[in-house]
Amino acid sequence: MPDLSVVIAAFDAQDTLDEQLDALAEQDVGFAFEVLVCDNGSRDATPALVRRRQEREPWLRLVDASARRGPSAARNIGAGHARGRFLAFCDADDVVGQGWLTGMHDALQDDEFVTGSWEGDRLNRGNRASVSWTTDPIVTKPFFPWLPGTGAGTMGVRRAVFEEVGGFDESLVTGEDVDLSWRVQLAGHRLVHHPEIVLHVRKRDGLRAIFRQAYAYGAGDRLLQHRYADVAAAFTTGAATPGPGPADPGPPVARAGALSVVRRMARTVRNKLSRGRVGLAETVWRVGEQVGYRWGRVDPAAPRVPVPAVLPPPV
Fold first, then answer.
1. What contacts 56, CB < 8 A, 6 or more positions away?
2. Assigned CATH topology for domain 4-206
3. 199 vs 120: CA distance, rounded Å
4. Domain ranges of the chain
5. Helices (DSSP H) in 12-59: which residue ranges?
6. Whole-angstrom distance, CA of residue 100 vs CA of residue 73
7. pLDDT of the residue at 263
């Protein structure tokens, strides 16, 4: 039986998945592992690619994860099929670094919930328009500074802990990994950073793709702020009691306000053009994130995360 199960959510991933699977195949390990590619209803040749590789890679498994849509659902379905006591998550469009499997396996011997480091040069040298930065895998949100979060692109967790908190929230379009991180820590399990576990990340290339991703992240942050309003109030007051009233969904967007934002966006874009495509890409990202956060729709009746009886110590 495998000791470590690697779960990869995949949707129309034929162009990048081979490189990720090659990196996993080249790992030098001394323990049994499996890799589950959880196909979320791909329309391309992703399933065929996995079936072809299975003939020579017995550790590779194809999981039909099309019953429910979205990366959270694909990961949850994959975790349900996994046989290892340790779960490690990575994405179909990134590439794990050498030693990633061993790093995850060793880290989870001592720590219940772990993350690694991101490297942003290897997969993005030929990009025409991408942001210059590589975001840190440890995320701290300004509206919830007490606990860190991490991305599902390089995340390890003991199966028992994953099942205890109910896995990823499938109602979330973005921010589902940060949400899981917070719920795991609220349940009493610390997030530990292991910088030696390296993942090569693939950035968005092209202004439209950058704006769409940034907008989705901004809207996701707005929803997370609503979901964790009670917990934030408890951290603020130091008492594990719900905060008063529902989270404020924000004022309606006025036409004058929208025009003002557009004008500011235009001025910023003109100023950044002098830096070329990189400066423009960074501007598009920041604008997209702000617009998503300000105007992303949040249902005031959306469920909120309950306050635990004992709050973990802030990090």
1. none
2. Spore Coat Polysaccharide Biosynthesis Protein SpsA; Chain A (3.90.550)
3. 9
4. 4-206, 210-295
5. 17-25, 46-54
6. 24
7. 56
Tokens (6 digits) for 263: 């004008």
Beta carbons within 10 angstroms of residue 254's beta carbon: 9
Alpha-carbon gap, residue 101 to 81, rounded angstroms: 19
CA distance 176 to 210: 19
Q: What is the pTM of this model?
A: 0.87
Mean pLDDT across 36-53:
97
Contact 126, 278 (CB under 8 A): no
Q: What is the rounded average pLDDT for all residues in the chain?
A: 89
Quote the pLDDT of residue 82: 98
| Angle at which helices 276-295 and 207-227 cross, to 10° | 30
| Contact between 228 and 222 (Cβ < 8 Å) | no
> Which DSSP letter does residue 228 get?
T
Say how far apart CA 41 and CA 194 lie, in whole Å: 33
Cα-based torsion angle of the residue sequence 256, 258, 263, 267 in order, rounded to the nearest 10 degrees: 140
Helix segments in 88-175, DSSP class H? 100-110, 159-165
If pLDDT is split at 50, 70 and 90, which confidence band does 261 have? low
Contact predicate 303/227, CB 8 Å: yes
Question: For residues 300 and 246, what is the distance between their CA atoms, to the nearest angstrom?
Answer: 6
Q: Using a pLDDT cut of 90, give the percent of the chain over it.
A: 77
Q: Which two tokens stand for residue 241?
A: 């009691």
Dihedral angle sign, alpha carbons of residues 296, 301, 307, 308: negative
